[in-house]
Amino acid sequence: MSAVEVNRPVAAIGVGQTPFGPTHEAPTYVEMLQQSAAAALDSAALGIDDLDAVVLALAPESLMGVNHAERWCVEYLAGRDKPVMRIQTGGATGLSAVEAGYAHVASGLYDRVLVVGADRVRESGDAQKIFNKIWDPFYERDLPFTTITMIAMSAVRYMHNYGMTERQMARVSLKAHRNGALNPNAHIRREVTIEEVLESRYLSWPLKLLDACPQSAGGCAVVLAAPEAVDPAAHSPAWIAGHSMAGESYYIGDRLEFSERGYDYGDAEALAVAAERAYAMAGITDPRRQIDAVETYASFTPVEIHNAEALGLADLGTAAALFEQGFFDLDGEIPLNPSGGVICTNPISVTAMVRFVEAVLQVQGRAGPHQVPNARTAVATGAGGSHQFFNVAVVTSEEPNR
Amino acid sequence: MHGAAITGIGEAGGADGDGREHSLESMIFAAAGAALADAGIDRDDLDGIVIAASDQTDGRAISSMLTAGPAGAYLNDEVNVASSPGHALAQAYMQILAGTHRRILVSSWGKASESAGGAQPAERLSAEPFFERDSGLSALAAAALQAQAHRRAAGPEAEAAALAVAARNRPGTTAEQVAASAPIATPLRALEVPPETDGAFSLVLEREGDERPRVRLAAVGWRSDIGRIAERRLDRLDHLGLAAADAYARAGVAEARREIDAWHLHDYTADAELLAYEPLRICPAGEVLALGAAGSAAINPEGGSLRGEAPFGGPLRKALEAVRGVRSGQAGRAVAQISTGFAGQFQTVAVIEAGR
User: Fold this and answer.
1) A89: nearest CA in chain B?
2) ipTM for the complex?
3) Residues of chain B with C-beta less than 8 angstroms from the C-beta of A79
4) pLDDT (tens digit, 9 = 90+) per residue, B280-328?
5) B258 alpha carbon, distance to own chain's centre
6) What is the pTM of this model?
7) Which of A163, A210, B74, B189 is the most buried (most CB within 10 A)?
8) What is the distance between the alpha carbons of residues A220 and A58, in angstroms, rounded to a whole number?
């Protein structure tokens, strides 16, 4: 998306999240949609009738047990007779839905759009049994791949290439849980020590329980608006300055050789591609200097390490040491996942939207105990499929130049 | 604001079900490749991919993991608009208008032969889970309920009109043959609904440049009804009327009946087609049955969908039909209606017109 000439800028003027937690304690799916939508509308000082259109973020519907659940949800979002569409890009869905909402507004067709989603990840049993079914039935399903073994293989590759240790992974977990304890909406809100992480049980070497995300339930929503619909008296707009998505190959076996960029399966090349495009759209030429906070979709600790590199915050193979030095801590140079990130909360359909909402809260200065001081530019990312779909959004406190 | 041109179309399989010679991904690849060839561009020329992939129809937990690649998405910007191929077309249209994209490939598909029972058994798991799933509601059952409601509201002449429409939309078939076919879901008979086939459909959208394109996507409008069948007025498609109003306003269509030359309508059943006439402003309510009985060369000029329809993605074919009609000069301006969900819950209206 070079030489982007955007028709008009787009602002987030309201955000809402439910508290996240285990599915057995959560309301029904549609109730969580309504609760998060109501919270977003409240923060935008709008009513449901003020909305022009609705975008639903709903990832693998088999997790919550209703196929094409967008059909069910329309009436619970006051969507009768309105334009409603559903986005599904796996774990990247929440941010893809924000990107779709962006198109609604930037096109000039709609002034106020609700982007909303929810998930009940254990509704249909252990998510990993469902995730095994996302792989090709002939070549990769029987390995057996799950989203855990998929990332374990990536971590092993990264260890081989760059010498990452399990202790360095544990340092990422320590940082994530420390931040998550400050976030009132996080599913997991307790600090952990490096020793606790190292002593937690193995899921698939080198990943241990405390290197991994939980299976969460909850909802999330955003109200996007045109500049003409931003009320300075009521809103503290956060502007979407850039966004993009890029997809990898389906077969993980196709990613086992180094690419021209020097990435292989231990890294996240498509995230780097998406970041380059989003940064170009946002005018970011030096991410280490221009970005104040990052909310990145990292469901396991090694992913946060290679994501930092793909986002241009560290050179390839150097991020693990930077985590150890506190570079990405809440009081570090570039705070990474100040909310605690996906390690503390993973309601899959909206996990990437939560990243966006947390980025919005940061540039609005409304993130509370996990606020990054003076954050003006924040980045949110999503990831879905077989570590395959990656998207990036740049959020700023200043309206982009028209 | 940038305008949108349609510079390429491609399909594999389609009404005749030839997609069975393909795997799912090769069928998508064939349609996408045909659209790119038709537009005279390569995959590298694209800066966006928009697909409509149905997990339940494709039998995959995340269909786009497999299908986005053959639709052109490797290392490219991509989104899966999973609610309807009409919504995918709308999303691509908005991305062009927004200025963020210049060339987008839009694709959708359905492959009924993927499962022995076709798409209907999986459809049952998309019914509202607390009150309606246990009733066995499926796309066919919902269509039958809609046909019942239409015929009850429209009066005794409605059945004859529906049989006439069905015969036209299934070329080579007479109304008498339709009437004599086996009942499958009251009041529908076997020849009143299309067989499920395999098909993939693609379009290339491009930002309009200084030169006006041969075919323009002048506008798209889309609206929704709620999911619960029991709470809907099945004898009306008010949300289709709202979608049409959006599209006509955006395209500058003031008097649709006079300004539209061809109507490529959703005709999963003849009753669904008849219900669309008034909200699309093809004719007033009082003239619907007469028009249905008499027929019009402007309505479904390619013969409709009753000879075969790919599940979920098949309705995107209406947009390809409209493009072909405009390219051939048979229509200066055409409407494509793309309908998905039980009894047309999601309605999309696209206005496609000649640019020069």
Assistant:
1) B80
2) 0.97
3) 224, 226
4) 999 999 999 999 999 999 999 998 889 899 999 999 999 999 999 999 9
5) 23
6) 0.97
7) A210
8) 11
